[in-house]
Amino acid sequence: MSKPIPKPTPETAPFWAGCAEDELRLQHCNNCGHVQFPPRKLCSSCFSEDVTWRTASGRGTVRSWSVVTLPGAPGFEEEVPYIAALVRLEEGPTMLSVLRNCDAEAVDFDMPVSAIFEDRGETKVPYFIPDGA
Fold first, then answer.
1. How much is the pTM?
2. Distance of alpha carbon 104 from alpha carbon 86, whole angstroms
3. Which of these, 48, 58, 95, 102, has the minimum number of CB atoms within 10 Å of its CB?
4. Where are the domains of the chain?
């Protein structure tokens, strides 16, 4: 079975369009300057509707991780084991993703990582790799 393809909503469409172009995009509030992920209709800090999308650096650090040994959804049977990680992006938000090109024993708190994008046909999905990998 193939991996699922994300289904963009009006709030997430700009994020997925960025991924298709190998860009990680985040919402920025034009009222208070807050940067947020996941996408929302309103700023999660000041509730302003004046949010815009900007390309992010794609860099961050590992804040937490877990080794996943059972596939969480159909299509991921050949992926296990894999490392699910919370990545604190340079811009501030934390993003749940998967670490690639990294052994579980090598993961460390505050390890620098960079975004990469896996082609899923209709779009691409962001993953992270250790810097220098």
1. 0.93
2. 14
3. 48
4. 13-130
